[in-house]
Amino acid sequence: MSLPEVKLSSMARLLEAEKREWIQKLNWDPSSTLQKIETYVSSGLLPGYAAIENDEALAYLYYVSGDGWASIGNLFILEEDRERRIEKLLLNTALDILQKDSEVGRIESHCIFMGGYRVGDIFARRGFFSRRRLYMVRQPRETDLDSFTGEDMSLRPWRDAYLEEAAKTLFSSYRNGADYRLSRCYATTGSCLNLLENIVYRSSIGQFEPNSSFVSFKENHKLTGFILGSTIGRLQGHVVQIAVHPMEQGKGVGKRLIAALLKSFLQKNYRTVSLSVTEENTKALLWYVRLEFKTALNYPIFLWSRHSVS
């Protein structure tokens, strides 16, 4: 059934099960995201599909689209119904619509399929290629209170006035890298600004924490890097975004930024801090390993384009 036709009451048990599973497996409370989904389902504005049986949703998938692009936002199935391969029906139905739409030139899927559904073969048969992302976790410790200093750099607490300069730094940092190719969020300075605005103003990934977010400057007041933190669960922080300008990489800027974030979360008595990184981004991955982040989850992401994608 099309999601705009589904009654919110039919989704109640499904969404509660999804929340419970995210908390149990990743200590990630998705309540704010699920509340937004409830709002859009109630208003009939969320594109996607649901599997309904006896007036109750067993599974759902939603997607977003616009400007020649689409993204699979989420797919979740009740645990007791996962052997029925409902994901095949939902994904194929959604992808039929999106791939036949001549205005959609690119489809991405970056969501964590919490149930470990067998979706790789479905995407592959439809011409998608896949990469892996790692969800990594570590504990903040007293030793993180040590500062990583540089003679010509200073840290400042995050202010929304830094958004535009941060977007320029983000674009420069990611340009031509693995994530630049895999996500349209990094395609232009404008899309980077939109991504940061979603994080800061709409708390798109956890509850944004301005007091755990920092910006690095040189003595000439040039922004060299930034880090944005959020709260995603009980006593769990998350590195939503970190970027260092290419000309400033290798100078300790990133290490100092992440040390400041860890110190901030430690002072709040947070037990863990998490982040995600694309496996293909080996430089960043090895850096996180050196900072003692451990892989908690390895999951696939998918991309399809009407044109060649390298």
Overall description:
The protein has an eleven-stranded mixed sheet, sandwiched between helices. The two termini are 36 Å apart. It is an alpha+beta fold and 310 residues long. It is built from nine helices and eleven strands. It has two domains: 3-127, Aminopeptidase, CATH 3.40.630.30; 136-300, 3-Layer(aba) Sandwich (Aminopeptidase).
Mean pLDDT: 94
CATH superfamily of the largest domain: Gcn5-related N-acetyltransferase (GNAT)
Strand-residue fraction? Answer: 25-35%
Computed structural class: alpha+beta
- Uncertain regions: pLDDT < 50 for 5+ in a row? 147-152
| CATH level 3 topology of the largest domain | Aminopeptidase
Report the end-to-end length measured between terminal Cα atoms. 36 Å
Counting structural domains, the number is 2
Query: At the first level of CATH, what is the class of the largest domain?
Result: Alpha Beta
| Helix percent band | 25-40%
Shape: globular
- N-to-C SSE series? HHEEEHEHEEHHHEEEHEHE
Biggest sheet, spatial arrangement of strands:
1-2-3-4-11-5-10-9-8-7-6
Number of helices, where a helix is a run of at least 4 consecutive DSSP H or I residues: 9
- Total count of strands: 11
- Largest sheet report: 11 strands, mixed
Features:
single chain, globular, about 35% helix, Aminopeptidase, eleven-stranded mixed sheet, alpha+beta, about 300 residues
